[in-house]
Model the fold of this input.
Amino acid sequence: MESKTGPDRVLITAVFMLVSIGVIMIYSSSGYMSQSKLDDQLYYFKKQLTWLALSLPFFFMTYKLNYQAYHKLAAPALLLGFILLTAVLFLPATRGVHRWMRIGPINVQATEVFKYCIIIFMAHSLSKQLGRIQNFKELLLPYLAILVMFVLLILKEPDLGSTILICAIFVTMLFISKARLTHLATFLLPAVAGFLILVFGLGYEKDRMESYLKGLNDPLAGSYQLRQSAISLGSGGWNGIGLGEGRQKFLFLPEPHTDFIFASIGEEGGFVALAGILGLFLLVALRGVNIATRAPDYFGFLLAAGISIAIFFSVLVNVGVVTGVLPTTGIPLPFLSYGGSSLILSLCAVGILLNISKQSVAT
Done:
């Protein structure tokens, strides 16, 4: 008789260790900024605790909801993604870009929601094809048409980082669905050419790319964010200068509690802390892959794999930006960065993984 494995306790432990570290580092890295700007040293810390409290009911809801229900939610999810990406373009710009919309008390980044909407849609759709995805004209081509439509909306915000992330998730899900490499190559090569034309021919975020290229040779010659991030990481050394002792948070490092929280951790905790953080993320990714391989059906496999890919790629992009390997983007670090929508969505995604894991058959 087959036995169920139950929820993945290793995954739960790793995720909530990351969330706990994030809350602590938000407190440490944001105190001076929130005191100087908002006259409340604990403002961001208290807000993150509020987001965490709001996230937990959503986490338990997705954990309890049978993942098979997402079959019916696939088409509405894709429609929701389209509505959000379109609506955000008509809202007032924040810091010169159209990426966020306010839903109740939460500022929602449209691409963060869309990231998981497209995963649900693709897992549902690809699970119905069962190998027929190898037919380029009838099956693969429509997926690429969907991708192009949404990419154009994201580029309009503009958000180059999210564009790259969404494309990476999309193509990887096609790859694990056994799409032909030659078919994927016929898409990737024109995409790379189009990217070069867009940036260097039409000037789309050209200044950012030029700062990035300078930073590849010398981080201190790159953008202001990269210079301050390099100083944070360098001053941390092996063991860091101590929790709460970071100096870059005194309005030198931009977004020390959000997009650049990894640099804040590096300054106060050093290489040892960063290695521990990356180890936890690697553990989350490996458990996600394990859940995918043991999923009861192909839909569960694709859904678990897509979520794991999204979390892992988000970490790669964020860490790549902080270390100067990638150009500066607005991709938050899952579970760690300050922000309500990122935390809620990340924990919801983990809830889905855990629902799949508890229905998996023991091996």
Q: What stands out?
A: The radius of gyration is 20 Å. Residues 261-293 form the longest helix (33 residues). The chain has a mean pLDDT of 86.
